[in-house]
Amino acid sequence: MSSPPASTNRKFIWLAAASVIGFVALIAAWFLLPVDQWLQGFSRWAQGMGALGVVVVSIAYVICTVLLVPGVPLTLAVAVAYGWWALAICFLGGMTAALISFLISRYLARKRVKRFLDRHPAMKAVDTVAHEETFKTIVLARLTPVTPFAVENYAFGVTGVRLGSFLLATAIGIVPGTVQNVWIGVIGRTAAEGSASLINWVLLTVGLVATIVLTVWMTRQAKIRMKQQAEPAFQGS
Hints:
transmembrane; mainly alpha; globular; TMEM64
């Protein structure tokens, strides 16, 4: 296999740098801002509403995702409020939002989404290979954090992807990221409650560092594989 071009390597260097900067900013915010108080307040509010709180948070999660709000902070917030139960809330919420966005794109905003794809080559490449390797393309796209989950939902709606394949591949592709973000949120919740031990802080740090490493690695691998899929598609066109 040929090595990736220099431009691709530069992109991943920038991605790694941005991830490190984000990590440092997050740590600085934790100590400089009353983040623990905000998290505790949100957790008390959500849990104080009981079952209604779960419904409200779930609906808000779906609406925010449909409106293209980044998924990572949403997942972390839900994990802070509900702990490991956030896995179910975020998974079902993400799947519901994916379905709604897909249908909006396919039947209500098709022309507008197509214009968006034409202005973004990376998403246009996804459109090209989706016809040949539908399932694999969607899973790889879900494992590529650089391409926003919410944007992908709309982008796949204007391709020839079948709804069943879209939902199944999405269900598989979002599991690793959801588990990872919920795990970090749960540890952050423990820290916010003031009951975090040294091991909790170590795990939180390890989790954040692992997130950076996995983000860069998965993005690189997914992009390489999608490029390999795109080459035969372009040659055959």
